[in-house]
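New here. Your pick:
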Amino acid sequence: MTVNDDSFTNWKNREETAEAMIPIIGKLHRERDVTVLLHSRSLVNKSVVSILKTHRFARQIAGEELSVTETMPFLRALTTLDLGPSQIDIGMLAATHKADDQGLSVEEFTAQAVAGATGSNKIERREGRDVVLYGFGRIGRLVARLLIEKAGSGNGLRLRAIVVRGGGEQDIVKRASLLRRDSIHGQFQGTITVDEANSTIVANGNAIRVIYANDPSEVDYTAYGIKNAILIDNTGKWRDRAGLSLHLRPGIDKVVLTAPGKGDVPNIVHGVNHDTVKPDERILSCASCTTNAIVPPLKAMDDEYGVLRGHVETVHSFTNDQNLLDNYHKSERRGRSAPLNMVITETGAASAVAKALPDLKARITGSSIRVPVPDVSIAILNLQLAREASREEVLDYLRDVSLTSPLRRQIDFISAPDAVSSDFIGSRHASIVDAGALKVEGDNAILYLWYDNEFGYSCQVIRVVQHVSGVEYPTFPAPAA
């Protein structure tokens, strides 16, 4: 048999194993609220090829490919356990079992590693929590996609309504079409139908009421059967406590802003300071996409090396706030054509660091350039460290952070030599460390951090909403502190 025959036979065998994984992953998700991960990447509703590619991507991080034949025994072991709602990373199970010296079988090791999600330790399945989207633009539609995707067994977050200003003829049909198709993020994964008579969009079985209102005061959510809901404001029209409090209407319990909050509104970056949210806090912000991109790696670097000062330069994709063609704009330069120019502008991300990392003493400055790409940005984080380090040391540290630390859902790592911005469309991490571009000289480190400023940020928003709603389930094996 030739090498080519061996490779093809191996591929077919792995395909067969991945096919067998799909019903197991789906059943765990639907019946037990268990999300199966592979190095922080969800395997729920993934195709055979997607599962195989996710396994192969581990090579970019850990240096060697992870095979489905290695992870399948751990997946099968999960089906024998009395699991409660949780997230279980079979990639981490395989890696930690390989390094374990107890001599345990796969079944014994798995039972021990996920003991916090079994038997008397398991979390009881909760009632679903209603969610309302106020605004349905770029972030609103991506958050909607994520909420629909994560509906699972129906015991998590439930998107009940979308509030928009009244449009023209066939308004709801056009909005449903924008949810169904996206020029950047592709087709919606599932089916969407429209019930115009009842002003409802049905997406993968989720009935989503479209409510027309020009102001929060016009809506009584209880009239639509909505109660104790979390409202996600995607408009950015109100950013202080007084303005956002307008949303606290009958049926709404909490308000989450998808823009930097002003005044005393807490700015939350999941993975960094989400555990500081007080149970009785009713209004909070998810900060900006750039703040979410730089704060986790900044925290990681400060924890290990200490950061004395820093500067972040963001090369940011253009947004709807800019003009397609030259026209009046209240901000300087942003009135010039976005698809035709690089535009120097301001960013509040550096000043927002203090809200998310109050213990960081370093002064962080920042500036931004908008460039003619529709999505994915890069933050160049230039840091003066408290001690000297080598490039290899920093690379190994950040690689480990992306794999095993509590920040592994926020920080990704890539070593591909020819990576470019479009490669990161759809990334669910807050930022991705580009290993090839990293520079370290003495006490100076320069990190190049890619981030999908639309989808990656939307994932961070969902994580915050899950946390404050009480449906953020624990991850096993637990990340190293």
User: Anything to note?
Assistant: Residues 3-121 form one domain.
